[in-house]
Design goal:
single chain; about 525 residues; Collagenase (Catalytic Domain); nine-stranded mixed beta sheet; three-stranded antiparallel beta sheet; globular
């Protein structure tokens, strides 16, 4: 049962701090020391703070990790990249780090849900070898933190910008249904609506294909360095989207990274149109052996978001090309592509002329397709090949392609969906591409139209100003509610004051309902120690 998949709005509050600090574990206590964080590391845009902290957890599962995430965010932090069950990356203000350190050292630490699993919060480069006791994705995530947010290691620059990415592969069999409609009627996204618009929590499966020589001659083998590079580049490519629309409130979860997924084929030596061969084998290996191969991946995407408790899910297949002459499939010019609105994208290790150092720009572009954005470079057939394509509509909100690189189009901006490296490094995205991934606010009320009750005529029955499938929940209960996609339990609500509901004087009481049955818990609150009664 998905408990967290609710699209909600969260107010954005900007607080700028001159200095930040790190919290490190020292035996059983915590200490604070100054960080070397810069303003550039804190902000990618003027609206949303860039991650400034990596949090190491000793969680045993995703549920306990979620408790730590909830705890940090309840204090004012914001988690953006999640590598279950040990790594969180996000923005943690100085005073939040200080409060966590104080609570960790207090006698009441065991009463605070989500605190006990926090091992350290660091704002500086970390030694990833200390994480080898965990799974290797934790090590790779730490290395990605060092590279992407601590600027450890320079990027190789190509001789020239490689230009557009030839990546239109047609429409998946379930495209029209997975694309959805402009209005969310009172029901959860169907099992094939896995990436309708880019809002809130998103699961990302990363699949490293490994040829075994049983059919094609084996020419490629993944190395630890290559896997490290891929994890880092994907994180940076997806991080690019987080800061382009603050009200989308995006976070990515990477709980399903699969290494050495076997295939008898050597994908890079074949045309990209042979994808059905090696993807079918990969999905068989993952336990999805029924139906057309794209539908198998769609079912996998739906399952991983259910498992992670996220809103959306998609898969990235990584094709090793490190020994290939041009880093492209055998039909030339093809090295990365995505199916519109999912279920997956494909990238080669070398990304043609982009190279591994700019896989992030390629991933960012392809992720735009995953959530409905069209190509905008001239000659992109059929999205941007004729003047009439300016009026073609794409994405969940059916937004025109008016930044298509044609004279007849209204907009002439350099943008991520035109391809190339510069739109990525310069953070360029036009309003039409933003609208196609679901980011439009026609009435300027800071609520994205995809879920805005003033734009969407459906009823906002739970009063959160967002029209979403949970609006049916107030009229449903028990198993009937679950059938509508409602949560098994309502969210915890705080009872005002200290010591209520049978709690101790230094605790606050919280209540919720699970399948119609009331539940209550007590949680330590430092504000209660001084006898202050508050909310």
């Amino acid at each position: 049962m998905v408990k967290y998949r609710k699209i909600i709005s969260i107010p954005i509050i900007l607080v700028i701090f001159a200095n930040t600090f790190i919290m490190v574990a020292a035996e059983d206590s915590f200490s604070l020391s100054p960080s070397n964080e810069t303003v550039d590391q804190l902000f990618l845009s003027s609206s949303v703070k860039q991650p400034n902290a990596i949090i190491i957890l000793n969680s045993s599962d995703k549920n306990s990790m979620q408790e730590s995430r909830d705890y940090i965010e309840s204090l004012g932090g914001k988690i953006r990249h999640i590598y279950p069950p040990h790594i969180l990356i996000g923005y943690v203000p100085e005073e939040v780090s200080q409060k966590i350190a104080n609570e960790k050292n207090s006698s009441n630490s065991e009463k605070i849900i989500g605190l006990e699993n926090i091992v350290s919060i660091s704002n500086t480069e970390i030694d990833s070898s200390t994480l080898e006791k965990y799974e290797k994705t934790a090590v790779y995530a730490a290395n990605a933190w060092n590279k992407n947010f601590m600027s450890v290691g320079p990027k190789d620059k190509p001789i020239s910008d490689p230009g557009p990415i030839k990546d239109y592969v047609g429409l998946p069999l379930d495209y029209e249904e997975s694309r959805g409609s402009m209005i969310i009627h009172h029901s959860p996204p169907s099992d094939i609506e896995t990436s309708s618009f880019m809002i809130r929590d998103i699961s990302v499966a990363i699949i490293f294909l490994e040829s075994n020589g049983s059919i094609d001659t084996e020419t490629e083998d993944w190395t630890t360095t290559e896997e490290n590079n891929v994890i880092s580049e994907i994180q940076n490519g997806l991080n690019w989207w987080i800061f382009k629309e603050p009200y989308a409130d995006i976070a990515f979860t990477y709980a399903h990274t699969s290494y050495n997924v076997p295939t008898g084929y050597e994908p890079i030596t074949r045309p990209h149109t042979d994808e059905n061969l090696w993807i079918t084998e990969a999905m068989n290996h993952l336990g999805y052996d029924d139906g057309e191969y794209k539908l198998r991946v769609r079912a996998y995407d739906d399952d991983i978001r259910d498992s992670d408790g996220t809103d959306w899910g998609f898969t990235i297949f990584i094709v090793d090309s490190s020994n290939d002459a041009d880093g492209e499939f055998s039909d030339n010019d093809w090295f990365a592509y995505a199916w519109p609105n999912g279920p997956f994208s494909v990238v080669t290790y070398d990304n043609g002329g982009y190279g591994i150092s700019h896989m992030d720009a390629v991933v960012a572009h392809e992720t735009g397709h995953i959530f409905g954005a069209a190509d905008q470079y001239d000659g992109a057939d059929p999205n941007c090949n004729e003047d009439s394509d300016c009026n073609a509509t794409f994405g969940y909100l059916e937004v025109e392609n008016q930044n298509c690189e044609r004279d007849a189009c209204i907009s002439k901006e350099n943008s991520i969906m035109r391809g190339g490296i510069l739109p990525f490094t310069n953070n360029n995205i036009d309003i039409y591409a933003k609208g196609q991934v679901g980011w439009r606010d026609e009435d300027s009320d800071y609520i994205i139209d995809s879920v805005d009750h003033s734009y969407n005529p459906d009823d906002d029955t739970d009063g959160d100003s967002w029209v979403d499938y949970w609006d049916k929940c107030p009229t449903q209960s028990g198993q009937a509610g679950l059938a509508w996609g409602c949560p098994e339990c309502t969210e915890w609500q705080q009872v005002l004051g200290c010591g209520n509901g049978g709690c101790e004087s230094d605790e606050k009481n919280y209540t919720r309902t699970c399948l119609g049955v009331p539940e209550s818990k007590c949680e330590y609150a430092s504000s209660c120690e001084s006898g202050r009664w508050g909310d």
